[in-house]
């Protein structure tokens, strides 16, 4: 299963993303709103791995972290047949520095995919998965009008996909 390290957003940004999830769902489009578990919340995934060593867990708990501002940018689409609709997170020095610190804490695990490693990562917040290509225009129309929006990264959490649980590592 997957182990991940994720950045959490402030309440206002989280509510804005949830509103986009709800708009997509109301239009009959794939949306993260369909996942009703308590752990499902808007986030930015900064690392994934098959497993995290106890030393990596300890190092994550000691990361230097202070909340910092980011901007949720334009809609972006990943994939070619089963599309993933996301909001781009505009990369800043603070965001990229935290991303590098997280990966340094995790060490050189060969199981970490290239697309989340430093210099290969596209920071984003997922809105919906498995979007049919013919519905892409409708989905973009629903969310693009919101434009760029400010947000604050307020915490770091861990998701353990094997045990289906999450916990806060740093921040709130």
Question: Which labels suit this protein?
Answer:
172 residues; alpha+beta; Cyclic Phosphodiesterase, Chain: A; seven-stranded antiparallel beta sheet; 4 helices
Commentary on this structure:
- It is a single chain.
- The chain has 4 helices and 7 strands; from the N terminus they run βαβαββαβαββ.
- The protein is of the alpha+beta class.
- It has one domain: Cyclic Phosphodiesterase, Chain: A, CATH 3.90.1140.
- Strand 3 (68-78) and strand 4 form a beta hairpin.
- The chain starts with a strand and ends with a strand.
- DSSP strand tally: 7
What is the SS-derived class? alpha+beta
Low-confidence stretches: none
Number of helices: 4
The H-and-E topology, N to C, reads as: EHEHEEHEHEE
Distance between the termini: 26 Å
So, CATH architecture?
A: Alpha-Beta Complex
Q: Return Rg in Å.
A: 16 Å
CATH class: Alpha Beta
pLDDT average, as an integer?
A: 89
Task: Provide the number of structural domains.
Answer: 1
Fourth CATH level, the homologous superfamily:
Cyclic phosphodiesterase
Q: What is the overall shape? A: globular
């Amino acid at each position: 299963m997957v182990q991940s390290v994720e950045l959490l957003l402030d309440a206002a940004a989280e509510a804005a993303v949830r509103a986009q999830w709800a708009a997509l769902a109301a239009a009959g489009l794939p949306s993260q709103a369909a996942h009703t578990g308590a752990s499902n919340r808007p986030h930015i995934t900064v690392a994934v791995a098959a497993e995290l060593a106890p030393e990596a867990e300890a190092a994550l708990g000691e990361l230097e972290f202070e909340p910092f501002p980011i901007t949720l940018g334009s809609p972006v689409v990943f994939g070619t047949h089963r599309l993933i609709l996301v909001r781009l997170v505009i990369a800043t020095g603070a965001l990229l520095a935290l991303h590098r610190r997280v990966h340094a804490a995790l060490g050189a695990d060969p199981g970490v995919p290239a697309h989340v490693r430093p210099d290969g990562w596209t920071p984003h917040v997922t809105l919906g998965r498995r979007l049919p290509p013919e519905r892409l225009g409708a989905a973009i129309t629903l969310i693009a009008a919101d434009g760029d929006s400010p947000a604050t990264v307020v915490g770091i959490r861990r998701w353990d996909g094997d045990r289906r649980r999450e916990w806060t590592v740093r921040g709130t």
